[in-house]
Design brief:
Strand order of the largest sheet of chain B: 6-7-8-3-9-10
Number of strands of chain A: 0
Distance between the termini of chain B: 37 Å
Order of helices and strands of chain B: EEEHEEHEHHHEHEHEEHEHEEHEH
Distance between the termini of chain A: 35 Å
CATH topology of the largest domain in chain B: Rossmann fold
Structural class of chain A: mainly alpha
Strand content of chain A: under 5%
Number of helices of chain A: 13
Helix content of chain A: over 70%
Radius of gyration of chain A: 20 Å
Oligomer: heterodimer
Structural class of chain B: alpha/beta
Largest interface: A-B, 41 and 57 residues
Helix content of chain B: 25-40%
CATH superfamily of the largest domain in chain B: P-loop containing nucleotide triphosphate hydrolases
Chain lengths: 276, 332
């Protein structure tokens, strides 16, 4: 028996796909986890559309207008919170020793994380689909062109993919899954909520406005609103408001550019067992 | 002689904790070497360095002829590793796990399938092959884990406490499997804190303590270091204890120890089984009634005790390094 010969890049692709397959199989074995990753954003849609929606005014159109404003925000929130899965998953792998097994195999080290993030992307796309259907049921509509809508979904998926690399890196810093599921997710909350996902930036205190404007989470939500043709209340003429889509794409590449190498390095050097 | 593993001056410190203080290890091809020592002695650190999971601070090592530090990919092509945890995916079936690792070992799809089926058969897991690991017993998980480490037919196999936490029957099963691997010519470096395990499996034993090699040799050589056999005698009547010791003195290679309360006499002897016959005859002539008599070889526990002043299976003296991001040691 001999191992095949193939160029390094070819191995990277086949290793990545093998790891992706592992995670997809896992999703099919534990459908509950997929179900609950769908339930949470759906609950948010219903909560904000029917409970808080009436109290938040985004201009003419009342509750209907807020629902159209809200759904792209929930898209943004959902792709952020999807990071939880990969963070905890990676810490769990590290604490169970399976990561040591990967590291002792002659596979490409980056492939373990590339496969995991790719599987998360597949799951995210599924969640975005279910969320779109839910949104449609409560009155959200796509008003833009087909090309714009396709671009909106592409930008959402790209951004979702980018932030899973942050999750992968954070997961590798965590000592065990318990800490990963609390401390490892703490950064998500300020980042997600100091944004325009639920309410326009202009309604926030002055000191918070520039932060919320430049926040990548605001940019992804605003990109989606613009491309889907949803309401854009109380807009200013700041750079993030005028160049939203290119800025969001740039953010995604910057995040991947920083966190993918950091995560791969952490993967190579992590002394997961830590036993002497 | 060809060395499958050769390490010189391996050193690794975790902050204040000196996990390894420059140890040398040689493992001849096709043999089993046992790394023996209590928790925190440096066994796992040694294995992790040799399996390319951890960089040594100083020193060098070759595995299968490749430098661990500068040729990690080549090393990974010739090794298999089984750690203290069953490093498999809980939600996948046994077969899916093995096929995944086969693919990642860069076997073709067909080869990965064939090899997985072969290993499932060999490790008696065929019936459970298409069930998810969640339903496996501890022993089955370890067997699957060992099977996973063999996917690429490694020349050198690292077994880090392969039977920790297993019940005696599963342990016996693992031993049989390991013995059959060695019969096939695999080189094995095994860590254990069970002296019995080292005694059973290893042709040579390296005793580690606080990151230093404190002794090495075959089990017999190590046992001889603490002295040869001893006759252990329990007399029927406590009053006879001292008299029996006096009678037996002529056969001893060193003075006897007498424990009057336990009616026990421990006499180091040189003559092996002849010594016990002589002793029984002499005691009979003097009319001393015997409750129990046995010839006892020193165990590795005696070796460890005499080398370190404590028992090998005691709890750790210096725990594993306590840096924030390390997991806790499981088992035992």
């Amino acid at each position: 028996m001999s191992t095949q010969t193939r160029p390094a890049m070819g191995w990277f692709v086949s290793d990545t796909l093998a790891v992706t397959r592992r995670h997809i199989l896992k999703i099919t074995r534990v459908p509950e986890s997929l179900f609950f990753s769908l339930i949470q954003p759906v609950m948010f849609v219903l909560l904000f559309a029917f409970v808080f929606g009436g109290a938040i005014n985004v201009g003419a159109g009342g509750a209907q207008s807020y629902r159209e404003y809200l759904i792209p925000g929930i898209f943004a929130q959902t792709v952020m919170f999807a990071v939880a899965g990969i963070t905890v998953g990676i810490t769990t792998d590290a604490s169970k020793g399976i990561m040591d097994r990967f590291r002792s195999l002659p596979m490409r080290p980056g492939a373990v994380l590339a496969g995991h993030t790719l599987a998360s992307l597949v799951q995210n796309i599924l969640v975005l689909f279910v969320l779109s259907v839910t949104g449609f049921a409560v009155g959200w509509r796509i008003h833009g062109s087909f090309a714009d809508a396709a671009l909106a979904y592409f930008v959402l998926a790209l951004f979702a993919y980018a932030v899973t690399w942050i999750g992968a890196w954070v997961g590798l810093q965590m000592p065990n899954p318990e800490v990963a599921s609390t401390a490892g997710l703490a950064w998500l909350f300020p980042l997600t909520f100091a944004s325009n996902i639920f309410t326009p930036v202009a309604t926030m205190p002055g000191w918070l406005q520039p932060i919320a404007l430049w926040n990548p989470v605001s940019c992804i939500a605003l990109s989606a609103r613009k491309l889907f043709g949803n309401p854009l209340p109380q807009m200013g003429d700041s750079f993030p408001e005028t160049h939203t889509v290119p800025l969001t794409i740039a953010y995604a590449f910057i995040i991947i550019g920083i966190f993918a190498p950091l995560a791969v390095r952490a993967f190579k050097t992590r002394n997961s067992g830590g036993r002497a | 002689m060809t060395l499958a593993i050769s390490a010189r001056g391996l050193t690794k410190h975790f902050g204040e904790v000196k996990a390894l203080n420059g140890i040398d290890i040689d493992v001849e091809q096709g043999t089993v070497v046992g790394l023996l020592g209590p928790n925190g002695s440096g066994k796992t650190t040694t294995v992790r360095i040799l399996a390319t999971l951890l960089q040594a601070d100083a020193g060098s090592a070759t595995v299968g002829g490749f430098e661990v530090g500068s040729q990690p990919d080549q090393v990974r092509n010739v090794i298999g590793l089984t750690g203290q945890y069953a490093a498999v995916d809980e939600y996948l079936t046994g077969r899916e796990n093995l096929e995944l690792f086969g693919r990642l070992f860069h076997l073709s799809k067909t080869e990965a399938k064939t090899r997985a089926a072969e290993l499932l058969e060999r490790f008696d897991l065929t019936d459970a092959a298409d069930r998810s690991i969640k339903g496996y017993s501890g022993g089955m998980r370890r067997r699957l884990d060992l099977a996973a480490s063999l996917i690429g037919r490694p020349q050198v196999l690292f077994l880090d406490e392969p039977t920790t936490g297993l019940d005696p029957r599963s342990r016996q099963g693992m031993w049989e499997v390991i013995e059959s691997l060695v019969a096939d010519g695999t080189t094995v470096l095994l860590t254990t804190q069970y002296l019995e395990e080292a005694d059973q499996l290893a042709s040579r034993i390296i005793v580690l303590d606080h990151g230093n090699v404190i002794a090495q040799g075959t089990a017999d050589e190590l046992k001889n270091q603490v002295g040869g056999d001893r006759v252990e005698l329990v007399v029927a009547n406590a009053v006879d204890s001292q008299r029996a010791a006096d009678v037996l003195a002529q056969f001893g290679s060193a003075p006897a120890q007498v424990d009057e309360e336990a009616r026990k006499i421990l006499l180091p002897v040189a003559g092996g089984s002849n010594a016990i016959i002589d002793a029984i005859r002499a005691l009979d002539e003097h009319g001393i009634a015997i409750a129990d008599i046995a010839l006892r070889r020193p165990t590795l526990d005696d070796v460890f005790l005499s080398l370190t002043g404590r028992s090998a299976e005691d709890e750790p003296v210096a725990g594993p390094p306590a840096r924030g991001r390390r997991g806790r040691k499981g088992g035992n």
